[in-house]
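Milestone M4 deliverable, item 7.
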Amino acid sequence: MRPWTEPELRAVLHDSGLRNVEISAGVGRRTPDRFFVVAY
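Output delivered:
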C-alpha cells in the first residue's frame, strides 16, 4: 500500500474525469492518514 497525500488524490481523481471531489477525515478514525472521499 502506498499512502496518498490529499493533493495527489485530488489530482488523480481529477485526471480520471471526476470534477466534484469532497475529502474529509476517515470515518471512525482519529488519525490523519485515512480519508473519506466522495467523488463524481
